[in-house]
Amino acid sequence: MTDEEFVKIPLEDKDEMRRRAALLEYYKPGGQGYPLTITIDAIQPNGGPVSGTTRVTVYGGPFKDMMLIHPKPKCKFGKNSMIVAATYTSCQPKPLGVSDVESNKALRTEMCI
Q1: Which pick of 47, 93, 99, 109 has the fewest CB atoms within 10 Å?
Q2: Which DSSP string corresponds to 13-71?
Q3: Is the bond preceding residue 29 a cis peptide, omega within 30 degrees?
Q4: In terms of C-beta density within 10 A (0-12 exposed, 13-18 middle, 19 or more buried), how is residue 72 classed?
Q5: Which of 104, 95, 110 lies closest to 56 in space, CA to CA?
Q6: Which residues of 81-104 are buried (b: 16+ CB within 10 A; e: fewer)?
Q7: Are 88 and 112 in contact (CB under 8 A)?
Q8: 87 or 103, greater pLDDT
């Protein structure tokens, strides 16, 4: 990208490009964050119908960094290893218990898939 092309990009997009470049540098082989370790704390619900269409939430991270590095996440499910498109969503820091109620947006301080 030329300097002239970069100047034409809106400021908020430039900031995101800089953050993404810094994260890619941090997580590249030999970088401080390499190898990147993703922790899966929980997957909810534990099961669903074989026909699919069940909304699944994956708790763990660091998914916030992954949003810039991998903007279009995918998840693999089932014995046939079906790969489906996923989305990042804000969530509570810990998985919900049986009697917990989904919190309002203000309490959703972590990113999940």
Answers
A1: 99
A2: HHHHHHHHHHHHHHHSTTSTTPSP--EEEEEESS---TT-----EEEEE-HHHHHHH-S
A3: no
A4: exposed
A5: 95
A6: eeeeebebeebbeebeeeeeeeee
A7: yes
A8: 87
Domain ranges of the chain: 1-36, 39-113
In the predicted structure, residue 9 carries a pLDDT above the cut 80: no
| Residue 9 to residue 31: CA distance in whole angstroms | 28
Query: Rounded CA gap, 88 and 75, in Å?
Result: 11
In the chain, what percentage of residues exceed pLDDT 70?
71
The one-letter amino acid at 23: L
76 by DSSP, 3-state: which? strand
Residue type, 69: I
